[in-house]
Each structure stands twice: as C-alpha cells, then as structure tokens.
Specification:
Number of strands: 11
Order of helices and strands: EEEEEEEEEEE
Number of helices: 0
Distance between the termini: 40 Å
Helix content: under 10%
Largest sheet: 7 strands, mixed
Strand content: over 45%
Shape: globular
Oligomer: single chain
Length: about 120
C-alpha cells in the first residue's frame, strides 16, 4: 500500500521559515515525480513546486526564490524549504507522487502552514 505522509507544518511569523517533508512508502520512490501543492481556504489547489525523478525542479512564480524543493532517494523523502514566508502562503500543503507511464498518482493527507503575527 502506497502512503505519502507530510510533516513539518506549523505556525510561523511573517519572514520566518519552515521545512516540510514528504515521506513515501510502499513503492519504488525513485521512479516518481513529486510535486507540492497547496490549498488556501476558499481557493483552488495550486501547484507550488515540483521535482522530477531526474532532479529537475520547477516553481510557481509566487514562491520562486523563496521556496526550495529537493529529494533524498535513500530516505524516500522530498523536502520543501519555505523561507521568507508571507501571510498569503497560509494553506494546507499536499504532497503528490506521479508515475505517468503506469498511470500512478498518489496524495498525502496534507500539513497546515499558517503565517501570522
């Protein structure tokens, strides 16, 4: 059974930092492309950052130069470093794993990030 579990959310002041982790179990982690999405109250879920199985990264314009995505295949984990946080970054952050050749697509349960003074 494939599971994605996110860690690291919390309450932080504007300008602060957090590191989110997504641990994947029950599958061959290294073949998956991994994305982080977020959903704020009353808004659609949006793509924040992604990293392919080859290590290529991409970011939403709103987080470029503030967030960094990375992966450690030995630990079956993807990280999202959030720096210079703003109140508008407040959302539930979700991890998504995709393997398009096999039509596989998995989601975590999400972790809450709240940026407030």
């Amino acid at each position: 059974q494939v599971q994605l579990v996110e860690f690291g959310g919390g309450l932080v002041q504007p300008g602060g930092s957090l590191r989110l982790s997504c641990v994947v179990s029950g599958t061959i982690f290294s073949i998956f492309d991994i994305d982080w999405y977020r959903q704020a109250p009353g808004k659609q879920r949006e793509l924040v950052a992604g990293i392919t199985r080859g290590g290529t990264t991409n970011y939403a314009d709103s987080v470029k130069d503030r967030f960094t995505i990375s992966r450690d295949n030995a630990k079956n984990t993807v990280y999202l470093q959030l720096n210079s946080l703003k109140p508008e970054d407040t959302a539930v952050y979700y991890c998504n794993a995709k393997w398009p050749p096999g039509g596989l697509d998995y989601w975590g349960q999400g972790t809450q990030v709240t940026v407030s003074s």
